[in-house]
Amino acid sequence: MKDQYPIVKVIHQRRKNVGVSKPSTVEIELSFQGKRKWISTGIRVFPKNWSDKLRVFGLPDAFDSNMKIESMEKTIMNHIRQLMIDGKPFDWSGLNSALENAQMEGSFLRFVENRVLSRKDIKESTRRNHKKIVIALKEFKRLETFNDISRINIIKFDEWLRGRKDYTQSTIASYHRYLKTYIHDAIRQDLIKVDPYIGFRVDQGKPRKRKFLTPEELVRIETCKVATFSLEKVRDMFLFQCYTGLAYSDLKKFDFQLVQQRGNRYVLHDTRKKTNEDFYIVLLPTAINILKKYNYHLPLMTNEQYNMRLKLISESAGLEKNLTSHMGRHTFATMSLNSGIKIEVLAQMMGHADIRTTQIYAKMINCTVEEAYSVLEANEKIKLFVNQLNYFLSVLIALLKCV
Predict the structure, then answer these.
(1) How far is CA 29 from CA 7, 14, 106, 378, in A?
(2) CA-CA distance, 232 to 221, in Å (whole number)?
(3) Mind listing the pLDDT tens digit for each residue in 326-375?
């Protein structure tokens, strides 16, 4: 029957007088019985970022926007198709109910998974961490749909995390942080109406204690015998980290051509790969000697292979600590603070985006501070002994004069 069911199409910039200087809403237009109705998708873009074929393009969140448009369009088409199959007439109230049900029953899990994969504002290392929340949601099974997003299920998720083996409070807090990111993302897209984290507090926990080498342990690594030249390369890479503070990702992109010679010093000014923050370091003689050994091109390998071979270096040096590539960076930081370098200067050397990260190292050297106090106490005892000795000498001299 003619006009028994509406014609559906996606349109942009319905009001042509808006112009190109303002973003317009993407809408789904339904033509039914000589009348037209428009349903907003909640997506607003400039004309330059829209085409009838590609829809949203040229934007970091284009994939997510098109996914939302397609989802709404598919919900409407499926509703109309089912009416045709059942031989039922179309009415607006039925369509509104279908849209509301689709919003409540949509897959939050698929939304998070697609969002993690499509984001352009995070590095691959960060993306790998965010993928963990997808795995956790699949295992938990109580936060799969938008309808599942509730405060009670967040509490159950927290309890589930606490029941996981070896999960520290910091780890639990990180899962909540990832989940909260995508819940707030869905709220901005009108897929979730109420923030389930309102009134729910998560203890961030204490940061994991960072391990570093003492000067004596560093000497043992420098002087130990290694079985092969391959392991010698690994040791040199690690020592280069200990004397420069470079993280593995920055070690991998190290380029001696960026180093500037200023008098007798070699200064490196570069940008950290992880934080995109500038850092400044002076290459110490030990680091320069390692570079000379390899004609100023470090012998790099994958991080996995590097860390695996560092375990052999630890065994060769007779250390009980499990060496990792990042321990070299921690060692540099603690050595610098112990040498009297101010924490503000160290933050620039390390390329920390927040000085609070640098302050963690200040807490790590409490043992060194205690050792320093031990020296002071020893000096005080020596001073007391000398004073007592001088007193006895003066008494002795006075007695001798009386004789």
Answers:
(1) 8, 9, 22, 86
(2) 10
(3) 899 999 988 888 888 888 888 888 888 777 877 777 666 654 444 544 54
H or E element in which residue 175 lies: helix 169-188
Q: What is the pTM of this model?
A: 0.52
Q: Whats the size of the chain, residue-wise? A: 403
* 8-state DSSP, 147: G
Can you tell me the distance from the alpha carbon of 308 to that of 329, in angstroms, rounded to the nearest whole number?
Answer: 17
DSSP 74-134: HHHHHHHHHHHHHTPPP-HHHHHHHHHHHHHHSBHHHHHHHHHHH-SSS-HHHHHHHHHHH
* Token representation of residue 275: 């934080």
Strand partners, 45: 24
Long-range pairs, 21-27, Cβ under 8 A, ≥24: 22/46, 24/50, 26/50, 26/55, 26/56, 26/65, 26/69
* Sheet architecture: strand order including 278-282: 259-262, 265-271, 278-282
Specify whether the backbone of 260 is left (phi greater than 0), alpha (psi in -120 to 50) or beta. beta
135 by DSSP, 3-state: which?
helix
Q: Which one-letter DSSP state was computed for residue 206?
A: P
Let me know: does 29 contact 38? Beta carbons within 8 Å. yes
User: In the numeric block, which tokens belong to residue 32?
Assistant: 């039914």
